Structure formats: structure tokens, C-alpha cells
Amino acid sequence: MLKPKDAILSGFEALASIAKRLDSHGVELVFASEPQKVYKAKRGKRLSNIVSKCDYRGGGNVMKSSMGELTDKVIIPRLP
């Protein structure tokens, strides 16, 4: 069984691979704990390094409280 940090990295790499094929502008990464900061890269390796260095704090409270801010400040302004 994968440790949570390894599972997160593996999941990110799988999703980044899909996103890279669907969006020619590259991959964007946003952490729930810091929704105002958007990491961008044409290739996923740089972002994988950022994910691997991140501390996993566990629990869903950070994600739950930050999804509204992420949606309002990052996702909605980018919609056509």
C-alpha cells in the first residue's frame, strides 16, 4: 500500500499526463492550502518536484475550506 504522500504524487503525475495532452498551454497546479498561488509548467516534471517536496498534512479540512476560494479566485475568472 502506498503512503499518502506517494499516492498523491502518483495521482498528480497521472492527471498531469492527461492535462498535458488536452491543453497545449501546459499544466497548472494549485494547492488547497495556498489557492492564490498557481504553478504553471509546459512539462510535468517541474510540477512533480514541487508536489514531492510538499508536506502532506492529512485530513480534509484544508481542502474543504479552500475549495471556495480556489473556485472564486482562480477558476471562475478564467472561464470564457
Describe the 3D structure:
The chain has 80 residues and is mostly helical. Helix content is 59%, strand content 10%. The chain has a two-stranded antiparallel ribbon. α1 runs antiparallel to α2. The longest helix is centred in the N-terminal third of the chain and has 19 residues, at 4-22. The N and C termini lie far apart (41 Å). 9% of the residues are buried. The model has no long low-confidence stretch (mean pLDDT 82).
Brief synopsis:
This protein has 80 residues and is mostly helical. The chain has helices at 4-22, 44-53, 61-78, and strands spanning 27-30, 38-41. Helix 1 (4-22) packs antiparallel against helix 2 (44-53).
> What fraction strand?
5-15%
Low-confidence stretches: none
Coarse morphology: globular
Give the ordered list of helices and strands.
HEEHH
Number of strands: 2
Distance between the termini: 41 Å
Q: Could you describe the largest sheet, including whether it forms a barrel?
A: 2 strands, antiparallel
Physical arrangement of strands within the biggest beta sheet:
1-2
Supply Rg. Answer: 13 Å
Q: Which class of secondary structure composition applies to the elements?
A: mainly alpha
**Helix fraction?**
55-70%
Roughly what is the average pLDDT, rounded to an integer?
Answer: 82
Helical region count?
Answer: 3
